[in-house]
Model the fold of this input.
Amino acid sequence: MRAKREYRDRESTEVAVLDALVDRTADGMTVFELRAAVEVDIDELETALSTLKEDGLITVESGTSETVIKPADRVVPETPADEDEAQTIGDWIRDRLPF
Done:
């Protein structure tokens, strides 16, 4: 699943983080899981997480053994749509441009 359209006009790493988190909305993800899912170096991931947290698009929950990151409710689409049908040509081009 992908983050809502209004949150897709961001840096590519931030969008990739939001998409990964939306896929695991209920459980959230650790930093290590995010790093594996997004496939960027730790500095890029840290910058993206910091920006997303400042903008209120993610929440961070510290448990007893690990810290879990989840998407803010407003980022998660209300109904899962078929990604191929929901994707506009602009989204398709934006996803493929190297930013």
